[in-house]
Amino acid sequence: MTSHVDMSPDPSELPARLDSQRLLRMPRLSDLSSKSFWIGNYNYKALLSWKSRTLPFFGPNDRLPVLLALILGLQHALAMVGGLVVPPLLLGGSAGAALAPADQIYLVSAALIWCGLGTFVQISRIPLGKGFFLGSGVLNVIGTSFAFVNSSLTYLNSEYKREGGLCTFAADGTKNACPEAFGALLGTGSVVGLIAIFLAFTPPRILRRIFPPLITGSILLCIGLSLMSSGITNWAGGSSCQNGGLCPSASAPHAATYGSPRLIGLGFSVWISIILFDLFGPPLAKNMSTMLGFLVGLIIAGACGYFDKATIDSAPVVNFLWVRRFPLSVKGELVLPFIASYVIVISEAIGNITATCNASGMPVTGSRFSSHIQGGLLSDALWACLSGVATVPPTTTFSQNVSVIALSNNASRIAGLVCGAALLLMGIFAKFGAVWVACPASVIGGLTVFLFASVAVAGIRILAHVNWTRRARFIATAALSIGFADICQPSWFEAFFSYSGKNTALSGFLSALTLLVSESYLAVMIIGIPLELVVPYGDDDLEHIEREKLAAEALAGTISTDTTGGANKSRSRLTEEVDELEIDQIRVRADEEAALGDIDRK
Q: Of the chain's two ends, which shows fewer C-beta atoms within 10 Å, N or C?
């Protein structure tokens, strides 16, 4: 078993960790000529070593040597880029709107540019007045969200299937490009995103009560399992040849039938490489394992002649936002699913910011911590809301950076700035996006199957913290019974409404109901949340609540004196602190919520 970087904090280091509220100091001209500014005295070999080492800690506002900032910032970028580009690839590719290759290349570039800019905003801390901020002020990164993908794919495919839909099939049965339906996703995402901005000002305590771990874990489990269908379809060759054709087309280099051993083997090379890098790689490689595994697949595909070079050759050298546009619209059937997805995005942000503050050595209680949560939620919601206008699917904070912080012992926001700049450059140079579009579907499939499984595992991780009383088992069984049924047979409810009239409002409403019932994670919400609110607690639940209350009272005893050992605090103030802190539970809650990241640790 491989060793990992020792993250046990040195007690003498804790004050420096907690003193992370000062502003970043801009370098002076005299710094530019010093070795410490460019290289420093950092042990760079430790990043490539398999031995357990204690690395120096850098707080959120500590300066880094330029070389170290470049290395760690690029590590953050490579740790997230594999997951970041998957939603636009799925929604714009053959599994979704079947856009032209040039449009797909643009979507990848636009997502990278937008997420790079969003990372700049998220790690900032811009005062808005009256105690409100924009930006979390800690090292959080922004990427496209998986929470919207499955409901969006269901909508896109329904537009191909239903009579009079926005999308059509070609004479040979393949999909025609459908920018109108893709524009509906973007437009609806931006309008519904206004609700996310409202939720950003909702106290996290209230969101936790509406969405306890039992519900959020079940939702995330269903999202991961539902997405697995598109991942394994790509692994076997892609939907373009699923009905007897050749992948990706008859004229493609080394074209093969769906499920061909050569295609499955190509996807397997990515999947097994990710596992090997994570098992045996040094600290620098562990959090880039998905990207490194993807690179292995690219090398094999290129060496064996699976690439269609025409797609890369025809791509522009540079790309920018809005060089391609899509007709924006709002679709009623997407409103409720997107509201649910935005609630998940907000829950993700709470957990990821909490986990980042904890890994950064900052307090995870008190008014200062609350302001970091508020600023992070607002920037996260605002960027997700505006992403549709920027032709990008909705975004969210990614959780990978927390494990990068843990392994590198670096929480400096300078590394986040470098990460944002790296994403920005990847997006501007369009050839980078073209590689993703041109690579065989099997390579993408080997990557996404691993990523989607990690989403499901994140849900299991949350459910592991649930107190499995009879009440919890009943609620989970009732909600997941329909959720799992939707995963096994997604089309079971599609024929329930047979309306074929000209009333577009009624038709849209019935389509929305169909989507709600047949989408697994939405079914879990519809069933689980009301049951969570109305099912009474049993004796075993009450015993668990009493144990938590006793833990809080024990905490009260530890903080009943001030820092000088003087008089007891007032009971009202003490009650307020106990209610806010609950230190005995805070790390468990942070662990639960951090697992809500799109691709947990990967």
A: N
CA distances from 43 to 34, 69, 380 (A): 18, 13, 35
Amino acid in position 410:
N
> What number is the average pLDDT over the span 349-355?
83
Neighbour tally for 316: CB within 10 Å: 16
Write the secondary structure of 226-261 as one string of H (helix), E (strand) and C (coil): HHHHHHHHHHCCCHHHCCCCEECCCCCCCCEECCCH
CA nearest neighbour of 397 among 424, 421, 378, 411: 378
Q: Is 31 exposed, middle or buried (0-12, 13-18, 19+ CB in 10 A)?
A: middle
Read off the pLDDT of residues 468-483 as tens digits, 9 standing for 90 and up: 999 999 999 999 999 9
Distance between first and last Cα of the chain: 19
Write down the pLDDT at residue 16: 39
Distance CA 151, CA 511 (A): 12
Residue 564, exposed/middle/buried by CB under 10 A (0-12, 13-18, 19+)? exposed
Short-list 349, 332, 321, CA closest to 116: 321
Return the closest-CA partner of residue 177 out of 241, 249, 97: 97
Bridge partners for 395 per DSSP: 144
Name the burial class of residue 185, with classes exposed (0-12), middle (13-18) and buried (19+) by CB atoms within 10 angstroms of its CB: buried
User: 129: which DSSP letter?
Assistant: E
Question: pLDDT value at position 219?
Answer: 86
Maximal C-alpha separation, the chain? 83
pLDDT over 80 (residue 54): no
Element of type H or E holding 335: helix 332-359
Give the position of tokens 């008859």: 250
- Percentage of the chain exceeding pLDDT 90: 37
Start-end of H helices in 23-134: 35-38, 66-92, 101-123
pLDDT > 80? residue 433:
yes
Task: Assess whether pLDDT exceeds 70 at residue 279.
Answer: yes
CB-count exposure of residue 332 (10 Å: 0-12, 13-18, 19+): middle
CA distance 178 to 175: 8
Contacts of 435 (CB under 8 A, 6+ apart): 298, 312
Q: CB–CB of 220/454 below 8 Å? A: no
> Smallest Cα–Cα separation from 276: which of 260, 262, 304, 297?
297
Q: Which residue in 141, 153, 227 sits closest to 454, CA to CA?
A: 227
Q: Which residues, 6+ apart, have CB-to-CB distance to 163 below 8 Å?
A: 500
Closest Cα partner for 116 from 128, 108, 105?
108
SS3 429: strand
